[in-house]
Amino acid sequence: MSNVYIKTKIRSGSYAMEYLRKIRKKRILVVCDKFLAESGAISYITDALDSSNTVDIFDQAIPDPTIEVVGKGLSVICKVRPEIVISFGGGSAIDTAKGMIYFAGVRNLVPKPEFITIPTTSGTGSEVTSAAVITDSESKSKHLISSDDILADVAILDPRLTLSVPPSITANTGMDVLTHALEAYVANGSNVFSDALSEKAVELLIKALLQCYRDGKNLEARTLMHEASTLAGMAFNTAGLGLNHSIAHQLGGTFHIPHGLANAMLLDKVIDYNSVNHDIMNKYAGLAYKVRLVDMNEPPAMAVSAFKELIRALMRCMEMPSSIRELGISREAYEEQLQNMTDNALMDNCLAGNPREAGTEAIKKILLSIY
Ligand code: NAD
After folding, report:
1. pLDDT confidence of 2, banded at 50, 70, 90?
2. Which of 17, 19, 206, 264 has its CA 20 to 30 A from that of 361?
3. Longest CA pairwise span in the chain (Å)
């Protein structure tokens, strides 16, 4: 049996923003971060909106949004009582808006607004997922809210918005896309639909990611990456994720390692862990054949090695750190958090999607292997 549920209307391309021009006489709340508000990027939205609308802006989203930030946003949504919420930014801004909508809905504080997502990074796929990742600064862990109520009604994919993303964020977010596609491909909930989405996402990423990194103004490559990101988001929203994300969430919650970078550092280790099971190894290999990383005649183990080499090569070419040590985190500080990160990874909602069971020892071993 395959479960697939697609709610979000996706408008992709340079004219996608035209959707906003048609909105009239609405109370609108835009959620973004300070950078997008102050750099002028926000005028993409404010200029597009008709003057008959009333527009408020909540610009307090921060990377890895916390419960406190969502709490602040909750009081704003209650005050404004918007008919439309537009989240504008990377995964952090989109998840902040989702958290606000979720808690306002659960507590019956405001009528459910129309929800429009406009991603400005090509990475999380949050514009089409029913998940929001919120950080608890006290326990240093990231919590996953999962509800169809936070699925966007409309996702606007305008690749021009990503032209200003600097190389290091292009690298991190791009590797997040690859992680989503790969984890979804082998996840317990994968099916023919999510497989097709992952395959296309990886195919586009192989074509475009390095071009985006080397020439951020290449609109054609940015378009492919923006679409790859949404495809991978749709894949994991259908199939689920796994061990990689359950550990990456703890690295982000504890040491504020950017989400995509944390995912990338873990990726080949998690592939190794999962590939002990030959069925899973064959599944990874199937993806490598599909995107023509290797010839169909090569044995599955070779195909999986080619995938791991692709990951390492991408990271090298994009000058990404490949170990925790390179981030300036001391071994002592890392080991001090080892048990807490392991305990939180075991409780992370993504873990259940992993095709091979992973317990305390396996998680600790993987965490130590990336130091
Ligand atoms: P981000 O939203 O944290 O943004 C990273 C940085 O990029 C910020 O400083 C931001 O201001 C800047 N930025 C954003 N757009 C820009 C642009 N166009 N030009 C220049 N700078 C720009 O990064 P992200 O990787 O998009 O999101 C990460 C967050 O998303 C994490 O909290 C992660 O846990 C979460 N996440 C959510 C889902 C989901 O389905 N809800 C999936 C994966 C990750």
Report:
1. confident
2. 264
3. 62
Q: Are 189 and 353 in contact (CB under 8 A)?
A: yes
Q: What angle do CA 10, 95, 260 make, to 5 degrees?
A: 90
In this prediction, residue 14 has a pLDDT band, given cuts at 50, 70 and 90, of confident
Over residues 154-205, the pLDDT tens digits come to 999 999 999 999 999 999 999 999 999 999 999 999 999 999 999 999 999 9
The region, left, alpha or beta by phi > 0 then psi within -120 to 50, assigned to residue 114 is: beta
Whether the Cβ atoms of residue 244 and residue 179 lie closer than 8 Å to each other: yes
Give the Cα separation of 24 and 30 in Å (integer): 15
In which order are the strands placed within the sheet that holds 9-12?
9-12, 154-157, 114-119, 84-89, 27-33, 54-61
At residue 30, φ and ψ (nearest 5 deg) are -100, 130
Kindly report the backbone phi and psi dihedral angles of residue 133, in degrees, each rounded to the nearest multiple of 5, phi listed first.
Answer: -110, 115
Select from 216, 164, 230, 211 the least CA-distant residue to 314.
Answer: 211
Predicted confidence (pLDDT) per residue in 242-280, tens digit? 999 999 999 999 999 999 999 999 999 999 999 999 999
Q: Cβ(168) to ligand 1 under 6 A?
A: no
Ligand 1 centroid, distance to 282 Cα (angstroms): 32
State which ligand 1 atom lies nearest to the alpha carbon of 237: 40
Instruction: For residues 120 and 45, give the distance between their C-alpha atoms in angstroms, rounded to a whole number.
Output: 12
What would the mean pLDDT of 83-99 be, rounded to a whole number?
98
Output the CA 165–ligand 1 centroid distance in Å. Answer: 10
The reply to whether ligand 1 has any atom less than 6 angstroms from the CB of 305 is no
